[in-house]
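Would you kindly consider the sequence and fold I have copied below?
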Amino acid sequence: MDYPRFHLALPVDDLEAADHFYGELLGCPRGRASSRWIDYDFWGHQLVAHLVPAAAMPAVSRNPVDGEEVPAAHFGVILPWADLEALLGRLRQHNLPFVIAPTVRFAGRRGEQQTCFIRDPAGNHLEFKAFRNMDMLFATDGLDYP
């Protein structure tokens, strides 16, 4: 990878459930771990699940985007289209419910993308997406977005 990697630490209220979700269901390799946190290789980035009391979990706010109520606090990765399709198959195979089902957003526009949202066992929201044309990741088309 020839660009910086991000590091994201997120709260979880059940470390064993988080390990099953990130390590087994999503297939993220484990890194270092303790009784209070676990590192994961999240598609080349460092994700750390930190154990916190359930009462310390943050509230979820939503924001309207292209007809969907998108969780305002979320993270994820942008994958090649075929890789996203493979991940969606894995999620469906494990019967993981979608917060926002896979959909094509901004169809026909420069930022056309396929996206979906899931939630980890602690309630953290993840978005996985793929752009029809990755060169359009930051492109604008001069139009307002709903």
